[in-house]
C-alpha cells in the first residue's frame, strides 16, 4: 500500500524568476533541515534542456514514538537525490526527488512540475505529487501516516522558502508570505495525522505482543 498526495501551489512570480530562485533557495530561514547540496552532474541536451542531478543531505530525526522500533545506531541524516529538467522552450521545469537512505523503512518520492499559470502569465504554478511507502512489517501504515504528515509540513516550508528567496531577489523582505495563510490548517492536519500514526503504531505493537 502506498500513500498518495497531490496539490497545486501558486507563486506570484514569473517562471524565469522561480527557476532562478530554485537554484538559490538554500539557505533560507525555512530550510534549516537542509545541511548540504552537491551537484553530481549537469548537462545541456541537444534539445537545449538543462538536465541536473543533485545530492542533498537533510536532518532525519525520527519521532519519539518511532525511535523504540529503530536501531540505536540509525543515522540522523537522510540523503536525497534530486533530478531536474529545465525546458526553456516549453517553459517548464520538472523535478523528481527520492530518498536513498532508510528507503526500506520509508520511501518518499516527489514529482513537481513548474509551469506558467494559465490564468496569469506573470505567475508560476507548481503541480506536486508524492508517493510514500514503507516495508516495515506491522508498522507500515503508521510510518506512512507519519511520512505524509511530515511531507505536508515540508511543502508549507518549501513554499515559504520560495517566497522568501523571491522577495529577497527583488530587494524585499517578506513580512507575511502567501504560504503562512495556510499554516494553521496545515498544523491541524499534521497533528491529526500524527495522532493517527501513534494509534496505528500502538495497535501494531499490541498485535506483535500476541503473535
UniProtKB/TrEMBL annotation:
PRELI/MSF1 domain boundaries: 2-174
Cellular component aspect of the GO annotation: mitochondrial intermembrane space
Pfam family, one: PRELI
InterPro entries on file: PRELI/MSF1_dom, Slowmo/Ups
The name this protein goes by in its record: PRELI/MSF1 domain-containing protein
Provenance organism: Coregonus suidteri
